[in-house]
Amino acid sequence: MVSMKKIISLALLLLLVGAGLLVVPHLTAARPAQTATTTAKRPSKKPTVPKLTRNDLQHSKALTYSSIIYFAVKHSKLQRWQEVSDFKLGWQVEIYPRNGQTKYLVWPDQHIQDSAKNLAPNWFRFKDSQHVLYDSMIVHSFRKDQTKTASLTEIVKQINTDHAAAKVRAMPQRLSVVTHK
User: Fold this and answer.
1) CA angle 93–133–98, rounded 5-degree value
2) Cβ count near 138 (within 10 Å)
3) Most confident of the ranges 6-10, 25-29, 41-45
4) CA 56, CA 50: separation in Å to the nearest integer?
5) I want to staple 84 with a disulfide (CB 3.0 to 4.6 A). Which of 30, 50, 96, 108 is the partner?
6) CA atoms of 65 and 82, how far apart (whole Å)
7) Are 158 and 75 in contact (CB under 8 A)?
8) pLDDT for residue 134 is more than 60
9) Span 10-32, mean pLDDT?
10) How far apart are CA 1 and CA 88, in angstroms?
């Protein structure tokens, strides 16, 4: 016959195993959550591109032209500026200094050939060191050209509001500049 001591030991052992089966799931469920918060990797952030500044424009003519073109395409409401809205093709800017006044003609496609330059392009000029005058000829009309004036500060502010600094900083790679004398 089985002794009473063995029965009590067996009962205690079963009681401990039963209690362990009840407690262990609670302990293991709590533990991964704790380790997950301490060892989980934070989601990687996109590299932050610094906001565009007027100082950036003063140090790079190509970035200045890119900012001016971006603003014209996205915010000028001058219809013909949409002709240069293909950011993949890029742009060609032709600089024509005349009598102390410089015009910047803007053509679609950084590799445009003279044979493709059939219609007068959009253009801009600097009214002073702070303001840009945009011009857009109305095709097949004898009406006055459409114009818009914007300050460089307004242009930079709008680019930053659009969160487009990275896009504008990439534009000079697809911009060619031709200077005429």
Assistant:
1) 60
2) 13
3) 6-10
4) 10
5) 108
6) 16
7) yes
8) yes
9) 62
10) 92
Residue 174's contacts (CB-CB under 8 Å, 6 or more residues apart) are 87, 88, 89, 90, 91, 110
What pLDDT is attached to residue 40?
62
Distances in Å between the Cα of 103 and the Cα atoms of 78, 122, 126, 136, 166 are 18, 10, 8, 13, 27
Residues 69, 52, 179, 97, CA torsion sign: positive
| Sequence ranges of the domains in the chain | 1-43, 54-179
Beta carbons of 120 and 142 less than 8 angstroms apart: no
CA 72, CA 147: separation in Å to the nearest integer?
11
**How confident is the model over 76-121, as pLDDT tens digits?**
988 889 999 999 999 999 999 988 889 999 999 999 999 999 888 8
Q: What burial letters (b/e) apply to 7-25, b meaning 16+ CB within 10 Å?
A: eeeeeeeeeeeeeeeeeee
Give the domain 54-179 fold: Yope Regulator; Chain: A, (3.30.1460)
CB-CB neighbours of 44 under 10 Å: 6
pLDDT at site 12: 66
Q: Cβ of 115: how many Cβ atoms within 10 Å?
A: 6
Task: Tell how far CA 31 is from the center of its chain.
Answer: 42
